[in-house]
Amino acid sequence: MDVQEIISDKLAAPLGIYSQGIKVTAPGSMVFLSGFTSRDAAGNVVGVGDIEAQTRNVLESMQHALAEAGATLADVVKMTLYIRDMNEFSKIHAVRAEFFTQPYPACAMLEVSRMVSPESLIEIDAIAVLAD
């Protein structure tokens, strides 16, 4: 699988840990992850009130789900982050930097007013591509 970051001098530089676009060239499979919130295997919210702990838990949970499909976070090409407070932007990206290297996945981050659990501060969904 060949993953190429799309970079153009006609676009503003990314403000965080993401690429403006990703081109994937490969025969392969796609993995679509539903939105993950910060929960343990019993369904309890992990990291109540702590955006860094919740972001880390979500990304670790995504690693487990991807592993079941034979994938890793390195195979993720697109993510959408839903967060409760855009003021947490830099903390979220600092944690993401622990999990991702370039080329970063294409990404959108949106502030939302509510989530499935009032204690949830972040939810992330993703698309990964696996070479055959």
From TrEMBL:
Q: Name one GO molecular function term.
A: deaminase activity
Question: Signal sequence: where?
Answer: none
Q: Which CDD domains match?
A: YjgF_YER057c_UK114_family (cd00448)
Q: Which SUPFAM superfamilies match?
A: YjgF-like
Protein name stated in the entry? RidA family protein
Give the similarity note: Belongs to the RutC family.
Q: Name one GO cellular component term.
A: cytosol
